Amino acid sequence: MKLILNENMDDIELTKAYNEALIAVAKENPNVVDVEADVANCIFGPNFQKEFPERYIDLGICEQSLSSVSAGMSAVGMVPFCHTFAVFASRRMCDQNYISCAYAKNNVKIVASAPGISSGENGGTHHANEDIALVRPITDITIMEPADSAAMRWAVKNAAENFGVYYIRAERYGQKRIYADDAEFKIGQANVIREGNDVTLIAEGNLMLDASLKAADLLAAEGISARVVDIFTIKPIDVDTIVKCANETGAIVTVENHSITGGLGSAVAEVLVDQFCAVPMKRIGVPNRFGEVGQIPDLQKVMHMTPEDIAAAAKTVIGGKK
Amino acid sequence: MNKEELKQLKVTALHCRQNVLRMIKANGSGHLGPAFSCLDIVTALYFHVMDVDPKNPDKEDRDRFLLSAGHKGMAQYAALAEKGYFEKEILDTFGQFKCRIPGHPDMHKLPGIEVNTGSLGHGLNLACGMALALRQDKKKSRVFALMGDGELAEGSNWEAAAIAAQYKLDNLCVIVDANGLQISGHTKDVMSYEPITDHFAGFGWAVTEIDGNNMEEVVATFDKLPLESGKPNLIVAHDIKAKGFSELEDQVGCHYWAPDQEAMARAEKELEDAIKEVLAQ
Ligand SMILES: Cc1ncc(C[n+]2csc(CCOP(=O)(O)OP(=O)(O)O)c2C)c(N)n1
Ligand SMILES: [Mg+2]
Q: Which residues line ligand 1 (CB under 6 A)?
């Protein structure tokens, strides 16, 4: 995997990268359409509308329709990318995503912006801390959280080219650069972005990968060598890499911008149990509490999702090794 | 209503808008357009129409106000503060970590908030539940729910529209803040529910239309409730998004405002002038 791991920040936001990638695939495939529900602004939707006015559909504020209408378009051969905030894409659209999209084996790409604790003053109603948990049990769905613009471009292209229901989480602020422009990704393949032997930090998304890399620095200062893995697709999950990390480092911490119930942490724990390779493990993420108003640094602190929290959890699991 | 009282209501609505500016100043940004458009209605409700008591916010037989369009939260906070439900210093905490006035209202954080909203399309159903229960409890209380016109696209509203008519909830009054705009453009271009009155009337509601920024008309209409006995009430309030700050009025971009100092100063000045003008009348 080709990485750019230095202090570089991305020159574009992830949401902008998404929009540019969508315009690029739409140029190649005339069936790609952008379906929106009145919050397109936050993902640069108007840029797509300018390029392809006929292939841009804003349904207004009706997310359940967003899902089923997209499924209907897919059933006659379109490739709809339907977008709304992650809270609505998961909680509000749950039954439609399940029946109209997945169960019917349609070709819908659900794009969920502003996931996790990134809603600022909007407060608890706008936190999507349970979206992965709601989507993950759906059969055959592909769940991706591209961690930077290179991963986002690949994700959108892959989703456009492959039949099936995708759930793509698009962070609002993530801007730490991780991958080289020509990095090659694979569905179901996690990427080791920092080597290490004493513990593995398995993370998702830009915010939490950034925090995990910082935690690895904190641990390195104490002589602890932490491996950092970007899970990239939460479903299908990379069983081989997880097993390998468990065997080679003997301890795991999962790090997610999501509830610790039902998301990445749960998915990794399921793998460890199923593969008979349970090792000491801890889950960093939103504990059992509702979201609340506040900026990301404050929320990271109160939810125990800071680099310091991750480093402390790493030491705990290392201490738990036999 | 006498002239003096009407004048006072108009001034109060402007003071409430000043409270909104105070919150935006504290946070650096906020939903100015959505809050300003409905503030004449919200002011009329709290200061003339509803039986509520800031000293006893939980009194059993109070009227209920539900802000279904939760992103207009600043409008409700502004009125509650003006009415004396809480100290105005709290306005300076808008958007801050652990504040009691988050972007969308939270009933567990502040007196006078009846429900949690912020996800559009919940308020009307919650209001139906309250109206139904209050009637069964033989309470005189009325339930007022304020909705956005863009919000009408949520299908859950139309389930509630049928429920309210079926159960003859004439103690329920819905006000649609029909400013003609939603985030991505004019509602007539994005997703039109015009004519709104016809749709609700079709379900069996008693309906009327007013200028939602004309205090005299607003008050006169509320004074007529219930419009018809045995039917839920709909008031479509045609008003102007961002009403009160002319450079943003009726602009698509007025949904969310992050002003620089000069823009804030212009908005403050315009409200001060407007207050002087009303007082001079
Ligand atoms: C279920 C849901 N979908 C989307 C949003 C995001 N959102 C907040 S305000 C808004 C536009 C509302 O338009 P309208 O109801 O006309 O109210 P106005 O902005 O005019 O006050 C949208 C789409 C939301 N809060 N809830
Ligand atoms: Mg509107």
A: A 38-39, 61, 63, 88, 92; B 34, 69, 71-72, 118-121, 148-151, 177, 179, 181-183, 241, 255
Residues of A marked as catalytic: 63
Nearest Cα residue in chain B from A58: B190
Question: Could you tell me which residues come within 8 angstroms of residue B110 by beta carbon, excluding any fewer than 6 positions away?
Answer: B77, B80, B85, B86, B100, B101
**Which of A209, A288, A214, A219 lies closest to A249 in space, CA to CA?**
A219
Tens-place pLDDT, residues A203-256: 999 999 999 999 999 999 999 999 999 999 999 999 999 999 999 999 999 999
Buried b (16+ CB within 10 A) or exposed e, B6-28: bebbbbbbbbbbbbbbbbbbbbe
d(CA A106, CA A75): 6
Mapping DSSP onto H, E and C, the string for chain A reads CCECCCCCECCCCHHHHHHHHHHHHHHHCCCEEEEECCCHHHHCHHHHHHHCHHHEEECCCCHHHHHHHHHHHHHCCCEEEEEEEHHHHHHHCHHHHHHHHHHCCCCCEEEEECCECCCHHHCHHHCECCHHHHHCCCCCCEEECCCCHHHHHHHHHHHHHCCCCEEEEECCCCCECCECCCCCCCCCCCEEEECCCCEEEEECHHHHHHHHHHHHHHHHCCCCCEEEEECCEEECCCHHHHHHHHHHHCCEEEEEEEECCCCHHHHHHHHHHHCCCCCCEEEEEECCCCCCCCCHHHHHHHCCCCHHHHHHHHHHHHHCCC
The answer to whether A164 touches A277, Cβ cutoff 8 Å, is no
- Reduced to 3 states, what is the DSSP secondary structure of residue B167? coil
CB atoms < 10 A from the CB of B68, how many? 29
Q: What's the DSSP call for residue B257? A: B
Size of interface A-B (CB pairs under 8 A): 93
Mind listing the domains of chain B with CATH numbers?
3-280 (3.40.50.970)
Nearest to B42 by CA among B4, B5, B15, B2: B15
* Domain assignment present for A289: yes
Mutate to test the interface with B, among A56, A62, A96, A300 (most CBs of B within 10 A): A62
Calculate how far, in angstroms, residue B254's C-alpha sits from the geometric centre of ligand 2: 11
Q: What is the largest CA-CA distance in chain A?
A: 62
Full domain range(s) for residue A237: 191-319
- What's the structural domain count of chain A? 2
The per-residue pLDDT for range B4-47, each reduced to its tens digit, is: 999 999 999 999 999 999 999 999 999 999 999 999 999 999 99
- CA-CA-CA-CA torsion for A260, A263, A269, A272, nearest 10 degrees? -150
Q: Smallest Cα–Cα separation from A154: which of A222, A239, A262, A232?
A: A232
> Are residues A28 and A168 part of one domain?
yes
Structure tokens, B127:
């209001």
Nearest to B120 among A61, A120, A295 (CB): A61
Looking at residue A6, what is its pLDDT? 67
Say which CATH number the domain at A131 has: 3.40.50.970
User: B250-274: per-residue pLDDT in tens?
Assistant: 999 999 999 999 999 999 999 999 9
Q: Which ligand gives the minimal distance to the CA of B148? A: 1
CATH of the domain at A309: 3.40.50.920
